[in-house]
Amino acid sequence: MSSVRIENSIPRGSVTVPPSKSAAHRALICSFLAGGGSVNPIISSNDMKATLQAIDAIKNGSELCDCIESGSTLRFMIPVAAALGKTITFVGSGKLPERPIGDYLRLLPEHGVNCSSEGGLPLKVSGQLESGTFEIAGNISSQYITGLLLALPILDGDSEIVLTTPLQSKPYVDMTIAVMKSYGVEVAETENGYYVKGNQHYKVQNFTVEGDWSQAAFFLAAGAIGGDITVCGLDLNSTQGDKEIINVLKKFGAKITVGDGFVRAEKSKLSGAEIDASDIPDMVPSIAVLAAFANGKTVISGAERLRLKESDRIESVVTNLKKAKVAVSETAHGMIINGGGACGAALCGYNDHRIVMAFSVLGMYASGVTTITDAESINKSYPDYFDDYNSLGGRADVISDR
User: Fold this and answer.
1) What is the pLDDT of residues 286-296, one digit of tens each?
2) Do the Cβ atoms of 389 and 360 come closer than 8 Å?
């Protein structure tokens, strides 16, 4: 275990964010189903390790698939394994065994797959997934929809996904469809969901993974609060939902410059804003820290699904903001923040990479020293985060507790 000690700094300069793990998850699975082709670049994060070893487990006929703490790996690979007729047991660590998979436990047996589970992990699947109509709620996790979309094209017969509630985090599904299309597989959007023709074939290709807008959000927030940061390696035409960080920052009054492959955020006079996070839940921790330094009230709504992430991110963010003397109140669907500054404090990382990274930004500008536990949790998605953070002039000292 480790913690990180953050001292005040004024970050300046440029940084190139790592490749998108969301795009990489999808491309790796498409490449596997195609039977070849490269996917580059990818980083050696725990989430990437989870998907790579899940693919290896299915490819090599293993009886066990360890998804570590990656919800994307788990929910994407369950229907893929079932579509390939594999018998395999999915396991995981951290909070992953507690995260919902109930819709699969209901849906897959309706389509020829045996599921053995007590409600979570471990989950054993066996049998052959059959095409047909899949009715599923759209407001629990878009990862269910992505998992089905990846798997259904290789089945005999056409399938339809019927959404029984409006789809949240739709940009993640749009990304899935875009990546699949680059591998030669088509999906048609319908009035209530998606139509997928069967007997399609993923085509071998070499896939280049774009930069990660989710990670860019931390640095852009840091620049807008009090620095001058240019984030490079970004695709302005990306289907990533977290590209919305540009508009979110502008809502707060931030000075943003957008160029060919880069976004620059400079110190700005920030004012509170109303943010609907339904399609951008992963950005809430960085938005909340931004709001802490904005004048006036910020209302973040549509974030209820954050309670089922690596931590209950609504509770995690609110608790840490309170420790930092920020006026904040928790709501059922988000939080209300009355900004104006923050104080250094001993904060909890909750073994959640996005909590640690977001509050490292707060530590740049809080009055006094900030410490955050569970610093090693950044290995889930961005192992080099603190190296990049310090390269911009940040003052982060990671301390091992061992």
Assistant:
1) 999 999 999 99
2) yes
